[in-house]
């Protein structure tokens, strides 16, 4: 099988793996090191001869043990701006392209995670799959224009834009169609896509948002407060990576659930206004969007807390923290008590809706209101681990088909494989510019429920989701 791809930078040799060719560690930008640390991503330099692309590049700096890195055969470095490509063939075919942005709260994760291996999806769908590494944490989200210049903000998003630009320009050399590019993201990856879409980015043709807490795009004031904490920790001048990671761990994340101090922020440049404000007040790019959440997103995070924490008082405090001081916490809890028995389940359900389901619904409903194509889903497929339900991240093994990479998320048996087949079939239909189910056109409109039965449902929890409609803090 042919494994050479000729790009404008130079020739790459990929790794033939059965029916797929994999190109790993492909540089899409120059190393963001030295004087380029706080600068936007710049074009990667070219090379002469044939460059080997058979090993994953270093992952972005993050908190991960050396033992875990070594076990996976990976390294970690600021020189991390690479991507990985899975293609059925290096030829002149024009296959649809899926670019996937990983999650991890914009502090963790990488495109070489086993869960995100694109082999099965590329082979099954005859598409090209791309995953990306980008700067994380302080290195990707520091809001400090007074320290490093106006274009030093939202470097994670700037990296993602540079990667998408590279894919547009170069993916034809890998059997992909640069005019049929779907960008997908999960969790913080989906939040990034909402920001790019609201900002008018024209480097993708369709978008998939999975479990994106869209409300978590930070205000300028919130981002400035994090920068002030870092300044107090003496992380402003030329610290080493270890110093930056140490300071990052000391940032106050607020009451559970944490406020996400490293998500994108309204910087007046890459993000001029909060994505929810943009969606509600004017049309975004008229592209099709597929978006949704899992039914029990927050349970996997609450599972780390001892059961004794979930008293009636704690549930009330969480309701007040989410809904605001002007709200009636008793009414909030009562809204959820009818459908959820235990204190833990009520507490988790409130966060799931506040941070994930309701803002996603608002974002895509607004997009649909302007006549755009929207498909909405809710994943109800439960984890085999007791108490987790259809938790955060469970969509990943189902989409990529890598069930064995995270057996606790979705299971590994025949039923899980059938569920994965369903998810892949529907997503691939969308990626190929089809209509996988009925369009979502209004609050409570058609939503694909993916569980033991897969069918569209209307008025799907519209009352509970509507409760959070005006509960989010001011954006700016």
From TrEMBL:
It comes from the Bacteria. This is Carboxylic ester hydrolase. Belongs to the type-B carboxylesterase/lipase family. InterPro entries: AB_hydrolase_fold, CarbesteraseB, Carboxylesterase_B_AS, Carboxylesterase_B_CS, Type-B_Carboxylest/Lipase. PROSITE patterns: CARBOXYLESTERASE_B_1 (PS00122), CARBOXYLESTERASE_B_2 (PS00941). One of its GO terms (molecular function) is hydrolase activity. Keywords: Hydrolase. Pfam families: COesterase. Residues 5-438 form the Carboxylesterase type B domain. Its EC number is 3.1.1.-.
């Amino acid at each position: 099988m042919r494994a050479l791809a000729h790009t404008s930078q130079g020739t790459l040799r990929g790794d033939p793996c059965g029916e797929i060719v994999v190109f790993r560690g492909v540089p899409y930008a120059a190393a963001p090191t030295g004087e380029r640390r706080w600068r936007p991503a710049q074009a990667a330099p070219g090379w002469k001869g044939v460059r080997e692309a058979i090993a994953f590049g270093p992952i972005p700096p993050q908190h991960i043990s050396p033992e875990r890195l070594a076990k996976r055969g990976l390294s970690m470095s600021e020189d991390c701006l690479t991507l990985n490509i899975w293609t059925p063939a290096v030829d002149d075919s024009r296959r649809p392209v899926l670019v996937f942005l990983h999650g991890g709260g914009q502090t963790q994760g990488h495109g070489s995670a086993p869960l995100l291996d694109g082999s099965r999806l590329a082979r099954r769908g005859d598409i090209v799959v791309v995953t990306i590494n980008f700067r994380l944490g302080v290195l990707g989200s520091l809001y400090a224009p007074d320290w490093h210049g106006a274009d030093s903000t939202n470097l994670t998003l700037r990296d993602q834009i540079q990667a998408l630009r590279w894919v547009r320009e170069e993916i034809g050399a890998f059997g992909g169609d640069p005019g049929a590019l779907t960008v997908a993201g999960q969790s913080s990856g989906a939040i990034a896509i909402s920001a790019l879409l609201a900002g008018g980015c024209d480097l993708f043709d369709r978008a998939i948002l999975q479990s994106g807490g869209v409300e978590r795009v930070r205000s300028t004031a919130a981002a400035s407060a994090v920068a002030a904490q870092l300044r107090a920790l003496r992380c402003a001048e030329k610290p080493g990576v270890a110093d930056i990671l140490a300071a990052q761990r000391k940032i106050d994340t607020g009451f559970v659930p944490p406020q996400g101090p490293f998500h994108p922020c309204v910087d007046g440049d890459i993000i001029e206004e909060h994505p929810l404000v943009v969606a509600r007040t004017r049309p975004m790019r008229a592209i099709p969007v597929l978006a949704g959440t899992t039914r029990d997103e927050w349970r996997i995070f609450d599972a780390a807390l001892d059961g004794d924490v979930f008293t009636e008082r704690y549930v009330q405090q969480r309701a007040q923290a989410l809904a605001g001081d002007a709200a009636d916490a008793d009414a909030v809890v009562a809204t959820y008590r009818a459908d959820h028995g235990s204190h833990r389940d009520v507490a988790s359900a409130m966060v799931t809706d506040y941070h994930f389901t309701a803002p996603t619904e608002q974002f895509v409903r607004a997009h649909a209101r302007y006549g755009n194509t929207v498909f909405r889903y809710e994943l109800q497929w439960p984890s085999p681990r007791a108490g987790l339900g259809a938790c955060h991240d469970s969509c990943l093994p189902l989409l990529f088909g890598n069930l064995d990479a995270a057996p606790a998320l979705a299971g590994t048996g025949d039923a899980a494989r059938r569920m994965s087949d369903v998810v892949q079939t529907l997503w691939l239909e969308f990626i190929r510019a089809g209509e996988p189910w009925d369009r979502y056109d209004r609050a409570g409109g058609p939503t694909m429920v993916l569980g033991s039965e897969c069918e569209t449902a209307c008025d799907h929890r519209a009352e509970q989701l509507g409760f959070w409609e005006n509960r989010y803090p001011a954006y700016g």
